[in-house]
Amino acid sequence: MPAGSGTGPGTASEEWTEQRPVDLGAIERELEAQLDVLGRAGQGVVPTRARMSNLVVFASGEAADGRLHESLAEISERHPSRILLLVRDDDLGAEPKAWVSALCRAGDGGRKICSEQVSIRAGGEGVRLLPSIVRPLLVGDLPTALWWAVPTPPPLAGEVFAELAAMARRILWDSRDWADEAVGLRSVGRWAEAVDPRIGLADLAWVRLAPWRLAVARALGAEAAATTSVRVVHGPHALPKALLLVGWLAARLGWRRRDGGAITPSSARWTLDGPSGRDVRVEVLRATDGPPLLLEAGFEVAGSVSRVVSVRSEPDGRLRIDPPLPGAEVLPSPSGGPGDLVARELPDLDGDPQFRAALAVARSLSEDVVG
Questions:
Q1: For residue 47, what are the contacts with CB-CB under 8 A and spacing of at least 6?
Q2: How many domains are contained in the chain?
Q3: 186 in a structural domain
Q4: Which of 3, 143, 2, 175 lies closest to 72, judged by CA?
Q5: Tell me: the pLDDT tens digits for 85-138?
Q6: Do 322 and 280 share a domain, yes or no?
Q7: Cα(92)–Cα(115) distance, rounded to whole angstroms?
Q8: pTM of the complete model
Q9: Is-contact 346 194, C-beta < 8 A?
Q10: How far is CA 197 from the centre of its chain?
Q11: CB-CB contact of 170 with 154 (8 Å)
Q12: Half-sphere exposure (CA, 13 Å, Cβ side) for 368?
C-alpha cells in the first residue's frame, strides 16, 4: 500500500482522503474529483486548495511506507504544498504507478483547507522516468523545493538527482543517514561549490546545529576571535555536524586550513592558520556508541584573561555552558523530526549563506578523514 493511504496520522482536525490509483495522464483530473467529493461531503462547502510551493520528495520504498508519511502531514499543515512524492520501489516493475490524495484540516467558518499529494512509484529502469513525469505536474507560478530523502549523498545519486535538482529553487538533504560521512561531505561540498548561489541549499544536520551555534557564540562572547583551540566530541553518524560546527567558526573567524591533518579512526586533528599568524588547534573525536549527536565542544580563549569554556549536551536535551553564564542555558530548537525541520526551511528560498561557507570548510577538512 502506498504511503499516505487511508486517514493516516495527524491531529483530530486532519484527515487524508483515500489514496486512489490513477493513470499518469489523469492525475490532475483525479485531484479535482477528490476536491469535488470533499465539497459534497462538506454540505456544499468548497474546499480551499492551499499551495505555497511545489515540494518534490524522493524516497525509497521502505522509508516512504514509514515515518515519512507523518513528516509529509506535518509539512502540509505548516507549509501547504503540492507534494510530489517519488518513490524508488524495488518491489515494483519498471512501469511507474501513481496515486493521488489530499490532506485536509479544518479552517475558519467550517472550511476545509486541503493540500495535494501525488505519489509516483517505480522500480528498476522506471526510476529514470520519474523526473520527466513530475515536471508537468509542477505548478508553474510556485517555487519548487526538492527534499532528497534517501541515504545516498545527492551528487552521488546520478542523473535522477541531477534532473530533479535542475527544477528546484531549494534543495534539502540529511547527512545523518549517510553510510560514509566523510565521502558524503566531500562529494556534497564539491557539488555545492558549483551550484548557482541563488539556489538555497540545506543539510538538516545544519538546521539541527542552530542551538549549538547560539550556545557557542554565547560561550565565546566578544573574545571569540582570540580562540586558540577547539575540541568537538560527537556520536556515531554525527561527523558532518562536528565538521559543520568547526566550519562555521572557521568561516566566521577567518581561520584557514593548512595541508593535511593527524587522522585516526576515532579522531582527527588539524592546526589552522588564525588571524595575525596565530595557530588554532582543532580536534574532532568520535564516541564509540551513542546517539548521532554532538556531545561536547570545548574551547581555549587567549583573550584579556585566558579561559577555557565548553558547551555540553545534557540528558534532558539542554545545552549547558561551563562555566555557567547568567541566562545562557539553551534548549535545542528546532528539536522535531525531519518533517518539522523541512517545514521550517521551505519558506526561506535563499537558504543560509553561512551554511555554504561552513560546508566549504567542512568539505576541506573531510579530505583528510577516512570513514
A1: 35, 38, 39, 102, 104, 111, 112, 113, 114
A2: 2
A3: no
A4: 3
A5: 999 998 888 899 999 988 777 766 667 778 889 999 999 999 999 999 999 999
A6: yes
A7: 27
A8: 0.90
A9: no
A10: 18
A11: no
A12: 21
